[in-house]
Design goal:
This protein is of the alpha/beta class. It contains ten helices and eight strands.
Length: about 220
């Protein structure tokens, strides 16, 4: 079935947020007297919920991880948020999808307000029908919760018309749990594409231009 609605992950798919996230993670860890982590460790913080990452990578308790998340935000929400840039080809891809009549939305595990601020700052917010993200006060935080919330707000009637474009196993897993397809991109923060495949990603491409070609080709093949 033709895909009519494209949901985008943010970090690692649309925006390279590594600089701001890595500096803010290091800022938080310094508060706890921990040594500066290597780049590979920091990159694993990009995408999943921060509190989960502090627990996974540093064995923090749930309470300590929540506290570390708040310390991270001290720097990230004032400085780190804007230490980012669009990946190459993103604006052109959004423009093309809009011209082709697709409905476009963000569905990020990052909180919704920062998502909007980043995309406005980078000059591409106008391409999206909805900029959706985590809203922790409403208990919307995991990928599946965000995806279900975004589809509800977009009034999606048929999940077969929806596809998530993401860069990680978390995107693929969330999409599978939400009952929609996921297409992966290779330029983001995932280190193990086999894990993405195990999580259910349909295809993995090197550029968004290739993703669009695939979507258009899949539509043509049906006719």
């Amino acid at each position: 079935m033709k895909k009519t609605t494209i949901l985008f992950d943010l970090d690692g798919t649309l925006v390279n947020t590594e600089e701001g996230v890595s500096k803010s993670v290091r800022y938080a860890l310094e508060r706890y007297g921990l040594e500066e982590p290597d780049r590979a460790t920091v990159r694993r913080f990009i995408g999943p919920l921060l509190a989960d990452s502090f627990q996974r990578e540093y064995d923090f308790s749930e309470e300590k991880a929540r506290e570390a998340d708040l310390v991270f935000r001290e720097r990230y929400e004032t400085i780190g948020l804007f230490e980012c840039e669009l990946f190459p080809g993103v604006e052109e891809a959004l423009k093309t999808l809009k011209e082709k009549g697709y409905k476009i939305s963000v569905a990020s595990s990052k909180e919704e307000v920062p998502c909007r601020r980043i995309l406005e700052r980078l000059g591409v917010a106008q391409y999206f029908d909805l900029i959706g993200g985590a809203r922790l006060k409403e208990n919307i935080g995991t990928k599946i919760e965000v995806l279900n919330d975004v589809m509800k707000r977009l009034d999606i009637r048929d999940k077969e018309e929806v596809v998530l474009i993401g860069d990680s196993r978390y995107d693929a897993r969330g999409a599978r749990e939400a009952g929609i397809d996921c297409i992966g991109v290779s330029y983001g923060f995932e280190e193990d594409f086999e894990e993405m495949r195990k999580a259910g990603v349909k295809e993995i491409f090197d550029t968004l231009a290739e993703v669009i070609e695939y979507l258009e080709r899949s539509t043509e093949d049906e006719h």
